[in-house]
Design a protein that fits this description.
10 helices; 16 strands; Rossmann fold; single chain; alpha/beta; 2 domains; six-stranded parallel sheet; Quinone Oxidoreductase, Chain A, domain 1; globular
């Protein structure tokens, strides 16, 4: 709820001032951001709690990347005290020079490493990853397009996928995995999804042509091969899956440790198979493409469960289990409202 302290209005935000378990997060009243030149102030209706929030809060970072992460997250205390890499809501105000958006516009945005989505208001520059929200979706649904969709698109930009391309998605039931299945199918690929048996129905409904239950079968031990492997788990480095990639194919490392990142260039050169952790920069064009797919019924929101902002600690606890399917949504300012 927005309040006023003195003469400056404040907002409710989920704030963490120490790294650690979910209960380091507290609801606090902070000043509403003031949009500067080129900025768009969004009244947030929904965000998501994802693996990136878990990693930032807990400092659970892939091996070797702790020091690098500290520069972005903070060394001793969080440098970005409000988590949330995405937002869906309504433009509240705009700064000088903004022409692309106006108060009242329904939008979705990716704040990325700046975070800030777990609050009633967030600012993003008009040239950032922001676009108008799908006309066919509630804010809760629309925000699920952002992190997973933009991440999958960013990795797919490294390769050519068309009719008949074989794509394997390892970790197919998460936010990025469920988006990767749908986007690969949209491009005409034949998709194999690696997930638990309990998620087989979900990934099949999203378009997966084949499902491998990792609790019963190790896909790396099979003689099958693929043009593209999308690695969303962190347990399938090139040393393990290189033989399952066809000549000229690619391994897209959505999750990689320092060792995997440092070796990727040499592995690409010596194997003639692309190994990359490059996701690129999120863009408004990527979001607009996802919105067009959603509005035409070709991209589906995948929501595991939703929590109110007041229950943000419970949302983090659930994400920490590692069992979420698709997206965990955080409702802020009546996040379920439709156009």
């Amino acid at each position: 709820m927005t309040t006023t302290t003195g003469t400056r209005p404040t907002m409710t935000a989920a704030v963490y001032r120490h790294f650690g378990a979910p209960d380091v997060i507290r609801l606090e009243h902070l000043p509403i951001p003031t949009p500067g030149p080129g900025d768009v102030l969004i009244r947030v209706h929904a965000s998501t709690v994802g693996v990136a929030d878990h990693r930032a809060r807990s400092r659970d970072i892939p091996a070797g990347l702790g020091m690098l992460a500290a520069f972005g997250l903070g060394v001793f205390r969080p440098s970005r005290r409000i988590l949330g890499m995405d937002a869906a809501g309504v433009v509240e105000a705009v700064g000088a020079g903004v022409t692309a958006f106006a108060p009242g516009d329904r939008v979705i945005a990716m704040t990325g490493g700046a975070f800030g989505g777990h609050a009633e208001y967030v600012c993003i520059h008009q040239d950032g990853a922001i676009t108008r929200a799908p006309e066919t979706m509630s804010f809760e649904e629309a925000v699920t397009l952002v992190f997973g969709g933009v991440t999958a698109l960013g990795f797919f930009r490294n390769v050519t996928i068309g009719r008949g391309t074989t794509v394997l998605v390892n970790g197919a039931s998460g936010a990025v995995g469920t988006a990767a299945i749908q986007l690969a199918k949209e491009l005409g690929a034949d998709v194999t999804a690696v997930t638990s048996g309990g998620n087989a129905e979900l990934v099949t409904s999203l378009g997966a042509d084949r499902v491998i239950d990792y609790t019963k079968q190790d896909f790396t031990a099979s003689a099958d091969s693929y043009d593209v492997i999308v690695e969303c788990v962190g347990n399938a480095p090139f040393e393990k899956v290189g033989g399952a990639i066809r000549p000229g194919g690619a391994l897209l490392l959505v999750i990689a440790d320092l060792r995997g990142m440092l070796r990727s260039r040499r592995q690409s050169r010596t194997s003639q198979k692309l190994v990359t952790y490059n996701v690129g920069k999120p863009s408004a064009e990527d979001l607009a493409y996802l919105v067009s797919l959603a509005d035409s019924g070709r991209f589906r929101a995948v929501i595991d469960c939703s929590f109110d902002l007041a229950d943000v600690v419970a949302a983090h606890r659930y994400v920490d289990t590692g069992r979420k399917r698709g997206n965990v949504v955080l409702r802020i300012n009546d996040g379920a409202s439709r156009p």
